[in-house]
Amino acid sequence: MFIDLSEVTQRLRRMSSEELDVSGSYQSFLLDLICEGKDTLVVDQVSVWLFDDISNPKKLINVANTQWDNDLNAEDYPVLLCEEYPNYFKAISTGVSINATDAHSDPRTAEFRDTYLISNNITTMLDATIFKNGIPHGVVCCEGRGPLREWQSAEIAYAEMVADCCSRRLLVSELWTLQQQMTKLAFHDALTGLKNRRYLMDSGHREIRRHIRAGEQLSVVMLDIDHFKRINDSYGHEIGDVVLKAFAQCCQGTLRAEDCLCRLGGEEFIVLLPNTPTEGAREVAERLRISVEKNIIETAHHHIQVTVSCGVAQVNLAKPFSYSLKQVDHAIYDAKAQGRNCVVCC
Ligand SMILES: Nc1nc2c(ncn2[C@@H]2O[C@H](COP(=O)(O)OP(=O)(O)OP(=O)(O)O)[C@@H](O)[C@H]2O)c(=O)[nH]1
């Protein structure tokens, strides 16, 4: 078989330069890629397999396959075990492509004879290594049914290019996941999982602009747990953390989905209430106050009850968001002065 390497290379290069929907699964890209590979090499099946652990591989996991009609769930991916196919694993780990003309007799692939090759009429195989940071990470496996194939150097080079495209796509996918995690870390509070102060400030400015455009009212409620220092002092900091998490859950369960509960820091929280005038916000604050008071927090050795002081303000849309935060902060100060476990409106 003759491959015009310059033509197929160009197709692959164009394909891998296309703008990717990185938020989607990498499998659909891999599938397009290996379908292209299957047609170009004129083989019967192409699949992508990845090691479970790049530094100490025990399994190869089949993540894409030209034979599959639909994407499988990750838990249904076929798996090859290193202990059952040691020679194949060793061959992939060298990073050199496996050009098995006769897959039944080639020492690198003969292990599959009785378990796979005979039952699937596979006669010939060409496997190219997928690398990650220069280390073998998996393999693109091309299988043929008909006559034995003496794999040509252009065919091997092409299969390796397909494997390199897989490497790049997997890397992009990993970077995207990392970026998602970083964004999550940047805008979330690690203890409670709620949005944090940075998110609140961004969101506050955005919401002000949106509410001006819509001619709607926006309110904020500040929540400050009463005598929280005593919880830490009486039960320890770890139980203090449990209380903060339980408090956050209790409040979240009391709010509408569109209300945004954030942890400002320590035992201070803010709720941003879209499309809500002061009176509505006061009712929400009162509901939160009662829910918190009723919520008995169970730990291994204690039943803990906390109360919360609440400040309420309608956001002044003509002023920076920080102005309204200062206002609710004053309201909290008054609530504490009035004996705590109460709601004060600006
Ligand atoms: N466990 C735990 N404690 C925290 C955390 N962040 C802040 N704190 C503690 O929260 C306590 C807040 O105490 P104060 O600011 O004196 O307020 P308070 O005891 O709640 O008293 P009032 O607000 O006046 O009712 C301090 O002891 C902080 O150390 C945290 O992430 N975990």
UniProtKB/TrEMBL annotation:
PROSITE patterns per the UniProt record, alphabetical: GGDEF (PS50887)
Annotated EC: 2.7.7.65
GO cellular component assignments: plasma membrane
SUPFAM superfamilies referenced in this protein's UniProt entry, alphabetically: GAF domain-like (SSF55781), Nucleotide cyclase (SSF55073)
Stored InterPro entries: Diguanylate_Cyclase (IPR050469), GAF (IPR003018), GAF-like_dom_sf (IPR029016), GGDEF_dom (IPR000160), Nucleotide_cyclase (IPR029787), Rev_trsase/Diguanyl_cyclase (IPR043128)
CC cofactor: Mg(2+)
GO MF annotation: an example: diguanylate cyclase activity
Catalysed reaction equations from the record: 2 GTP = 3',3'-c-di-GMP + 2 diphosphate
Limits of the GGDEF domain: 216-346
CDD domains associated with the record: GGDEF
Gene3D superfamilies for this protein: 3.30.450.40, 3.30.70.270
Protein's recorded name: diguanylate cyclase
